[in-house]
């Protein structure tokens, strides 16, 4: 019986055996329905996410003009003008970079021309993939220098719009910090002190509105008004204050959440740019480093030219461009065509790196044999 049972198991294994089956493969297979749901509904809900970003941003800006502008104008007109210039400059950069990140194509491999370099074949597109290109399951296309698919942009972040995406996050964080700094006093007075303002270190009491009184023989006799003007004024003033407090709390919550989310994301992407890699390449590089370390070899990222040069290439600060193009909205395109890439192993000068894409240097991931000390 034991021998027959062994033969049955062997027969079953010959029909179902797969060399690639492991825990990760089984987990991916079981989670495939969830992946399908996320991929399809992320694309469907993309316009809603974009509308949400625009609505939340405009609502916070409206509150800043409605409550913050009168407050600072009464306090100091000259300071208000300076704040208006700074705030609108930040808002202009936020709108510009968000629009460019959402509307600009991340870049796709050409279908009607020959690709000069190909590192593999896409299993879903069944077409050659240039270096640093990956397939997006949401867009169902291969993306040049793909970083990730952003649902808030309803677009992939890749070769064509990576700089716009990063600059949008940076300017959004700066804008939120601007609102928090110059709105803290307003929130403290309107919410914490319930509308009472400090004047020379003392709390300024509001004018008490009530009915006039007349004293007769040490007895206070109230004199009732025939109209209800005072009560209506008090009610309207109370409702306005309630609306202001609600708006300030709403703006504070939105600003804090955005600063925490985009602040941490900006720091992480800044670290990736410093290392000359995308978020997908960071995982690949980590796995390659671990694999080669087990073989007593050292892995080197072929696209890491050093922090300074990595930032210059990413921001496009080459060919005569200065940091002014980062302060003023600039639509300049990224270097090269995204199909070929210069590497640390190619013998190219600083000037030739400004024409990345026209060179015939080989890309890809390269491991260099080094002896351990």
Number of helices: 11
Low-confidence regions: 198-203, 347-352, 355-373
Average of the residue pLDDT scores:
82
Strand content: 5-15%
Structural class: mainly alpha
Q: How far apart are the termini? A: 58 Å
Along the chain, the helix and strand elements come as HHHHHEEEEEEHEEEEHHEHHHE
Largest sheet: 2 strands, antiparallel
Strand order of the largest sheet: 1-2
Query: Could you tell me the number of beta strands?
Result: 12
The percentage helix is 40-55%
Instruction: Work out the radius of gyration.
Output: 31 Å
Overall, the morphology is globular
Describe this structure in words.
This protein has 373 residues and is mostly helical. Helices cover 54% and strands 10% of the residues. It is built from 11 helices and 12 strands. It has a two-stranded antiparallel sheet. A two-stranded antiparallel sheet has the order 3-4. It has a two-stranded antiparallel sheet with strand order 5-6. Strand 5 (148-150) and strand 6 form a beta hairpin. It is globular and about 90 Å long. Residues 198-203, 347-352 and 355-373 have low confidence and may be disordered.
């Amino acid at each position: 019986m034991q021998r027959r049972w062994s033969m049955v198991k062997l027969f079953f294994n010959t029909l179902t055996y797969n060399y690639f089956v492991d825990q990760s493969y089984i987990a991916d297979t079981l989670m495939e329905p969830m992946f399908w749901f996320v991929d399809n509904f992320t694309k469907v809900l993309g316009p809603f996410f974009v509308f949400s970003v625009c609505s939340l941003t405009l609502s916070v800006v409206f509150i800043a003009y409605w409550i913050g502008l009168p407050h600072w104008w009464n306090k100091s007109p000259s300071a208000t003008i300076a704040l208006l210039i700074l705030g609108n400059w930040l808002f202009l950069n936020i709108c510009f970079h968000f629009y460019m990140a959402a509307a600009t194509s991340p870049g796709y491999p050409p279908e009607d021309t020959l690709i000069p370099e190909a590192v593999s074949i896409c299993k879903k597109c069944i077409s050659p993939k240039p270096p640093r290109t990956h397939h997006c399951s949401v867009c169902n296309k291969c993306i040049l220098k793909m970083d990730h698919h952003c649902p808030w942009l309803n677009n992939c972040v890749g070769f064509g719009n990576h700089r716009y995406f990063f600059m949008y996050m940076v300017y959004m964080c700066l804008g939120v910090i601007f609102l928090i700094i110059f709105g803290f006093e307003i929130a403290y007075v309107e919410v914490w002190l319930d509308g009472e303002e400090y004047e020379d270190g003392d709390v300024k009491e509001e004018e008490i509105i009530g009915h006039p009184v007349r004293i007769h023989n040490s007895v206070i006799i109230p004199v009732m008004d025939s109209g209800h003007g005072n009560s209506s004024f008090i009610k309207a003033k109370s409702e306005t204050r309630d609306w202001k407090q609600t708006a300030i709390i709403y703006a504070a919550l939105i600003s804090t959440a955005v600063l925490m989310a985009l602040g941490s994301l900006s720091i992480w992407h800044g670290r990736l740019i410093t290392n000359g890699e995308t978020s997908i390449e960071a995982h690949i590089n980590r796995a390659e480093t671990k694999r080669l370390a087990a073989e007593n070899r050292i892995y080197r990222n072929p696209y890491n030219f050093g922090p300074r040069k990595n930032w210059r290439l990413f921001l496009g600060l080459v060919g005569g461009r200065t940091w002014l193009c980062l302060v003023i909205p600039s639509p300049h395109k990224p270097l090269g065509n995204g199909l070929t890439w210069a590497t640390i192993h190619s013998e190219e000068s600083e000037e030739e790196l400004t024409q990345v894409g026209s060179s015939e240097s080989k890309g890809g991931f390269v491991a260099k044999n080094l002896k351990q000390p």
